[in-house]
Design brief:
about 375 residues; 12 helices; seven-stranded mixed beta sheet; single chain; Spore Coat Polysaccharide Biosynthesis Protein SpsA, Chain A; alpha/beta
Length: about 375
């Protein structure tokens, strides 16, 4: 009984920690309105790095080409593809004068390193303002470039956007993928508004060429195969130079994985970069995850033993209600509000998967760029 008392008191502590995160950290995004920004049109280079992405380029590149924006170039980087990616790029380039191709061959020093290919693409771009997406992504509107780049200013040199995934009906995996993407976005948007930006996603990210070269590009983490997006943002972002774009016309949408095995591999790669974040960010993210994990572990333990179950039930409901209230508006803004019906289930499932990935990454290294 004494042990259960300790578990009960620990449960109260983690419940309070969770409430603080939702009310004072993530709550900022719930009541935040996208500020009106300057409509100044800047010359933009859209950069897409592709490795064996011929089919996706055929399907999604037209949505980038047809953007309603006065002056932009598209830099297509063929990263040593073994399919007909280069031929597809050349076909599009022959039809559109604003497409530039950078053909990258494997380098012994940087074999299979996406950061090397991206660096060559950035160097080849002609404009100061850079907008990044992936070959399997498409802007959801023809005003994507305008919505993202309008947040650039004399102070704001790095723009964090939202890259969601398309919906698949009656798919639990699809809901889980979208839920994880939603929660991750709420986290990095909220912390950016608090002046603690720590990551962004390469599916929808913008920064200036000056920012890239001032930081010596990816040199600080060039040996880390992944992290061309989040590790770079973690390195250069600060409270003064970072802005966020959550206007729906500024979103991109990607093809989600359709098998749990493929998604699990993808998340292993993504999560493996977090250990390279700045210490303060690692502490915050560890506190968020561990308090979530302990909350459910303690709650289930106390429920199954009927130890102070009335108080445990009340605190659990209080925490879940806060979650719904705080996540409702951001979910609506990011067009993912259908997921809230499954909130407790998806959260517990995701926590278990993240814990499994963490353990797997301790045992073996994940695979990286294709």
């Amino acid at each position: 009984m004494i042990l259960l008392d300790y578990v009960f008191y620990a449960f109260i502590v983690v419940a309070v920690i969770q409430a603080i995160f939702y009310l004072f950290f993530f709550g900022r995004l719930s009541f935040l309105k996208q500020k009106k920004t300057s409509q100044k049109d800047r010359d933009v280079s859209v950069i897409i790095c592709a490795k064996n992405e011929a089919e996706n380029l055929q399907a999604f590149l037209p949505a980038v080409i047809n953007q309603n924006y006065p002056n932009f170039e598209i830099v297509l980087i063929n990263d040593a593809s073994t399919d007909n990616t280069l031929e597809v790029m050349e076909q599009f380039a022959s039809q559109h004068e604003n497409i530039k191709i950078v053909n990258v061959r494997n380098n012994e020093t940087f074999w299979g390193n996406k950061k090397y290919a991206l660096t060559l693409g950035i160097k080849a771009s002609k404009n100061e303002f850079l907008l990044f997406t992936d070959a399997d992504c498409k802007p959801i509107s023809k005003y994507w470039i305008r919505n993202m780049t309008t947040h650039f200013s004399n102070e704001k040199h790095l723009i964090l956007g939202y890259g969601g995934y398309s919906k698949i009906k009656n798919s639990l995996l699809n809901k889980l993928i979208r839920f994880e993407t939603l929660i991750t976005a709420i986290h990095y948007f909220s912390f950016a508004k608090l002046g603690i930006p720590y990551m962004g996603v390469g599916r929808n990210l913008a920064y200036t060429k000056t920012t890239f070269f001032k930081a010596n590009g990816f040199i600080n983490h060039i040996k880390v195969h992944s992290g061309d997006d989040d590790l770079f943002v973690n390195q250069v972002a600060n409270r003064k130079n970072t802005a966020i774009c959550f206007s729906k016309n500024g979103f991109t949408e990607s093809i989600p994985k359709t098998t749990f095995k493929d998604w699990f591999k993808q998340k292993r790669r993504h999560i493996s970069t977090a250990k390279h974040y700045k210490l303060k960010h690692k502490i915050l993210l560890t506190l968020i995850f561990s308090s979530q994990l302990l909350f459910w572990f303690f709650a289930i333990t106390l429920f199954t033993t009927a130890h102070n179950w009335e108080i445990v039930l009340a605190l659990s409901l209080f925490r879940i209600i806060i979650q719904y209230i705080i996540l409702r508006k951001p979910s609506k803004k990011l067009k993912e509000n259908d997921l809230l019906v499954f909130l407790p289930f998806l959260e517990v499932f995701l926590i278990l998967i993240q814990l499994t990935i963490f353990i797997n990454n301790l045992v073996s290294k994940p695979n990286y760029w294709k």
